[in-house]
Amino acid sequence: MNDLFSGSFSRFRGQDQSPTQDSHTIEMTNSGSTGGVNLDRFFEDVEAVKDELGDLESLYTQLQAAHEQSKTLHSAKPSKTPVPHGRRYLRRSQKSKVIKVRLEALDRSNAANRSLPGCGPGSSSDRTRTSVVNGLRKKLHDTMTRFNDLRQKMGSEYRETVQRDTTR
């Protein structure tokens, strides 16, 4: 029982510690596929979307800070006037539509990439592309949910401020 492996290792001892010619070896070959190039382009597009998501996150923090600042006002009159940067915030918040269009373009790119040899459905390239795009889509969804929650919070606090002012 103790000599189970000794026979299989003893054949290497006499051959300078190297395997025989008829042993199995695995080598990576260059298949000539463009999967790496396509993934490079894909990750460039993903980085662009991530940058835009970062801009959207910074817009959220700016909007939240502006809202917190407006709550510290002592008079209700300034809080009833529209935020001077409101239109700028609105234009920048429309960036989410641009991100959504880019995610749809990445989906179309993924579908086109599946037709390439070695990049079909279930391949590592396809799984990578799909998981990255789904992750970005989830991040966009979470960000937009946070924006919506902030919008509802701002609206309810504004209604409370106006109601308090009219009851005086």
From TrEMBL:
<feature type="region of interest" description="Disordered">
    <location>
        <begin position="111"/>
        <end position="131"/>
    </location>
</feature>
<dbReference type="GO" id="GO:0016020">
    <property type="term" value="C:membrane"/>
</dbReference>
<feature type="domain" description="Syntaxin N-terminal">
    <location>
        <begin position="34"/>
        <end position="159"/>
    </location>
</feature>
<feature type="compositionally biased region" description="Basic residues">
    <location>
        <begin position="85"/>
        <end position="94"/>
    </location>
</feature>
<feature type="compositionally biased region" description="Polar residues">
    <location>
        <begin position="1"/>
        <end position="32"/>
    </location>
</feature>
<feature type="region of interest" description="Disordered">
    <location>
        <begin position="1"/>
        <end position="34"/>
    </location>
</feature>
<protein>
    <submittedName>
        <fullName>Syntaxin</fullName>
    </submittedName>
</protein>
<dbReference type="InterPro" id="IPR006011">
    <property type="entry name" value="Syntaxin_N"/>
</dbReference>
<dbReference type="Pfam" id="PF00804">
    <property type="entry name" value="Syntaxin"/>
</dbReference>
<keyword id="KW-0653">Protein transport</keyword>
<dbReference type="InterPro" id="IPR010989">
    <property type="entry name" value="SNARE"/>
</dbReference>
<feature type="region of interest" description="Disordered">
    <location>
        <begin position="67"/>
        <end position="94"/>
    </location>
</feature>
<feature type="compositionally biased region" description="Polar residues">
    <location>
        <begin position="122"/>
        <end position="131"/>
    </location>
</feature>
<keyword id="KW-0813">Transport</keyword>
<dbReference type="GO" id="GO:0015031">
    <property type="term" value="P:protein transport"/>
</dbReference>
<dbReference type="GO" id="GO:0016192">
    <property type="term" value="P:vesicle-mediated transport"/>
</dbReference>
